[in-house]
Amino acid sequence: MPGKVFFSVSMSLDGFTAPESLDAIFATPEQRKQDPRLDYWMTQWMELQAWIFPQRFFRENLNQGEGGEEGRDNDIARETFERTGASIMGKRMFDLGERAWPEEAPFHTPVFVLTHHRRDPWKRPGDTTFHFVNDGPHSALDQARAAAGDRDVRIAGGAETILQYLNLGLVDEFSIALSPVLLGAGSRLFEGIDASKIAIEPVGSEASPRVTHLRYAVRSR
């Protein structure tokens, strides 16, 4: 039996999953000096994701050494990883990650990248292989399902890619780590959603000291 298609994201209280620019993550000191917005966007990103950085699983998965917090936040991060047999992401997310991920990329499964350019698969240490798909989201999902077997397929992001799969009716469920921050602008998760075709049903919620974890099933109207 095939697994489910899902996404899981951190989101601000006003509905954003990323600040206006993630280029701040890679900015040089000179660039930061010339453009003070870079520090502001970096601060927003760190606040949005603050719940995950201290977790033991997150540190282990990025080879950041031993230690870290254990608890329900850590369990949820680990459970999300363990259920995932393959991931799908957009080209922009891949381009950003290619500069930020360690040599042993933190997926450890096949990853299918939506792109308009041809490129040979890119194999990384730790069983992550990036496959570049230029014939559309359905093809990427078919390939991801085949690779995942009876595990689930995660739509890793960014927001535009998640929205694309939602509007195509291809997402079964999703989870949001609702962070107690306001961004004011950026990538809004549900901007452009076709609400006439999609309904959601609450599945569960759990509060931790840092975020509230919300889970929903997706249904067609």
UniProtKB/TrEMBL annotation:
It holds the Pfam family RibD_C. Residues 4-212 form the Bacterial bifunctional deaminase-reductase C-terminal domain. Coiled coil: none annotated. SUPFAM superfamilies: Dihydrofolate reductase-like. InterPro entries: DHFR-like_dom_sf, RibDG_C, Riboflavin_Biosynth_HTPR. This is Dihydrofolate reductase family protein. It comes from Catenulispora subtropica.
